Amino acid sequence: MLAFWWRPLSFVALLAFFSLFIGAILGRVSGLVVLSIGLGWGLFLHLHQLARLYAWLGKPGRSLPNAEGSWGEVFYRLNKLVRSHLDAEHRVSAELEQMQQATGSLPDGVVILDGHNSILWLNNAAQGMFGLRPERDIGQFVSYLVRNSRFNEWLVAEDYNQTLTLTAPGAQEKTLVLRLVPLSREPQMKMLIAHDITEITRLEAVRRDFVANVSHELRTPVTVIVGFLETFAEMDQPDPVQFKQHIALLREQSDRIRRLVDDLLTLARLEGDSEVSDEPVNVPSLVERLLGEARGLSHGQHEITAEADGRAWLLGSEHEIYSAFTNLVSNAVRYTPPGGRIRLRWLEREDGGVEFAVTDSGEGIEPQHIPRLTERFYRVDRGRSRASGGTGLGLAIVKHIIQRHQGRLRIESTVGKGSTFAACFPHERLIPPPVAPSVDAEPQADAA
Ligand code: ADP
Q: Which domains does the chain have, with CATH numbers?
């Protein structure tokens, strides 16, 4: 502050001193004239700088003029102030833009509303979810655009703890959970957040269906067993022949429960364990084993053949691969009428991968069922599946195992002609058989 006063005061002091000096030499009038001219000149200079400042204030975009003395100091400080304001403004607008970009690409829909529920801003996700277009809808009341009575009642209630589950107005296949968050009191603003819960809802429905299906599958054999046991309890002297028949039926039902529980445990294990072991699996020898098992299962009722490329082994879990392949083979035997043909093949594919294909000359499957066959408990013919000992979980397990090995299940079928179920694996899973120990190795070792 002192620095500011120093210049004008020293100018006035100097002028007064000079005027006194002139007055003393040339007379009082001359001194007064010099003082007036000096003060007038000083006043003119200040008015000139004031006019420049005034002109600048009219168009503050330009940089401030340069000046000497106190005005120079004023302009310099003003310049600094303006620059720091501009910097802050740039920073804030860059941060705002960043925030808008981040919010804009959020998977959740975000709509900013004012106190009257007019739309101030919305992100990309909200546009799809609510069917809104920013260029048309900003400034409009959201309740005019989202015409849903439940939504409007909820919006008017403004209960920030209450969420609303709604079918997306702009995408009927989606389910949304809406939440209101207060943003500011003055001016009153709030944020409408829409979270897509379609997948969660679907998974919940799958889980509910699964529990219902398991209960249903278990109820039948359990009811049969309980019925038999009650009959036994009422018999004073059971007929040994009838007793034996009943025991056989009891065993059949218990087997059914065991198979179901085994398959459920397998599925649970596969889902719980994300890692698959990478061991060399000798698939050609596995195919030999499967051929023997298939013939045993068929009791000579089918013509079953197998061919395998001996040079192709697989990298994976032997236990899981066996489980998947045996499921495909047993399905072929169970769904192919006596006299039919079944062919097992293990061969390299043209794309460099490898596949295990089971082709049968069975009844075939209508095209509309094919995409659903790997769903849990999905059967084309429930009675037929149960009668042949099926749990309805076989192909679900197969698909799971193949996917854990980065493969896919290929299903081709023609009604009346038969089906092919193939487990296809990518090139990376195909390995050559391990090199057998050299024949010369032993004699050499002996000689040593
Ligand atoms: P299931 O225990 O009922 O056999 P899967 O999951 O193994 O259960 O198979 C699902 C359904 O796919 C079967 O119920 C059957 O309708 C059909 N299916 C599977 N394999 C064959 C096949 N080789 N030929 C005809 N239908 C088949």
A: 2-94 (no CATH), 105-196 (3.30.450.20), 214-271 (1.10.287.130), 276-431 (3.30.565.10)
